[in-house]
Amino acid sequence: MTGRRKPTPQIAAALDKALRANGELIAFTAPPGTPQTKRTIRDPGTVPRNVTIRQASREAGERSSSDATAIASFRAADRQLGGGHLYRSVLRYLHHNIAPRLFGSEEDDEPQQTFLAAASLTELAGWMAHDSGSDAHANRHFQKALPLARSGNDPALGANIMASMSHLALQRGRLSEAASLAQAGRKNANLGPKVPALSSRLYAMEARALAKRGEAEATRRVLDAAHEELRSAPVPAVSEWTSSFDSAALASEAALALQDLGKLSAAAAEAERAVSLRPGDRARSRVFGQISLALIRVQQGELEAACTVGNELLGACHTLGSIRATNQLNNLAIALNPYRQQSSVSDFLECLLAVNEQRAVLFADIGASPTMEGSYT
């Protein structure tokens, strides 16, 4: 005997729906000999008879608050340090703090909140896997996060996950899929209270896909919609389960879309705005914005300006555990290499080489290629 209990009926029902088990998990948790039509699933709002409503509410609230605090802490550290440092910590939290409540080895009097915490953390694990260079693992996390969000009955979180899936599809060159996911995300978001910042993010993802396809007019129209949505929310609303999307994030996405369309002056303006709006505690986002600006400057033939931006960002890269950042730095080196006979370019490339050598040691220490730990995540 392992000492583990079967999932409670109400959790089994939600898991059965989320995992598309066609009633098998419900049957597994039913008492022996119980006809399927007689099984009773306890509503998530009820509590065991031997626990007072006040006690159950207090304990459930404490767990939900603890999960939300953990998610906020992971997100803050991820933005500053990169996903490579934290990926396995998030997986451990999922396995040791969330999974026991989902699968029944611990009592859970607020299963809906547990599903939302599981969905949010699984999505975050997907981003960390992506940042660590493993898009296949990232895709698996996102695919599992979405039905968990649906089981938690949170349309905004589901739409947020679709935006993440759209981003990943874009990075993998699946442009039609990226656009479709963004559109589906907006439909999903409309099932709940309006969240303008989330709608803006989804419009921005669609615009990125359209720009990659060279659809300039459609890109501009959708980018305008993204800006309009964000203007309707002066302070973008941030759920404890969803990631934020602000003016700096929109400027970053707009810069990339405009760059893909060859509108370099407009792209440079958006990239500069993104960097100026991004505070120092968002090191990774700021570095991405600076790399985008430097690449645009190279395309404009402004090599001195590109190297100036490049030198500014190198200091923040030493401890940033992000394979994505390394890949973008390599793209910048490739773009500048034809001009290495110029002293400013040559000096920058030498500094970049030294930083990349230090980062190679960092990735050797933290493990650049994440591995899956169990079937849940």
Largest sheet: number of strands, sense, barrel closure: none
**Helix percentage range:** 55-70%
Q: Based on Cα principal axes, name the global outline.
A: globular
Structural class given helices, strands, pairing? mainly alpha
Explain what this protein looks like in three dimensions.
- The protein is mainly α and 377 residues long.
- It has three domains: 1-153, no CATH class; 160-278, Serine Threonine Protein Phosphatase 5, Tetratricopeptide repeat (Alpha Horseshoe); 281-370, Serine Threonine Protein Phosphatase 5, Tetratricopeptide repeat (Alpha Horseshoe).
- The chain is built from 16 helices and no strands.
- The protein has helices spanning 9-18, 24-29, 53-81, 87-102, 111-131, 135-151, 155-171, 175-189, 196-212, 216-231, 247-260, 264-277, 283-299, 303-314, 323-336, 343-366.
- Helix 8 (175-189) runs antiparallel to helix 9, helix 9 (196-212) runs antiparallel to helix 10 (216-231) and helix 11 runs antiparallel to helix 12 (264-277).
- The radius of gyration is 23 Å and the shape is globular.
- Residues 1-7, 35-61 and 369-377 have low confidence and may be disordered.
Briefly, what is this?
By secondary structure, the chain is mainly α.
Set down the secondary structure blueprint.
Layout: H1 9-18, H2 24-29, H3 53-81, H4 87-102, H5 111-131, H6 135-151, H7 155-171, H8 175-189, H9 196-212, H10 216-231, H11 247-260, H12 264-277, H13 283-299, H14 303-314, H15 323-336, H16 343-366
Descriptive key words:
377 residues; mainly alpha; Serine Threonine Protein Phosphatase 5, Tetratricopeptide repeat; 16 helices; 0% strand; globular; disordered N terminus
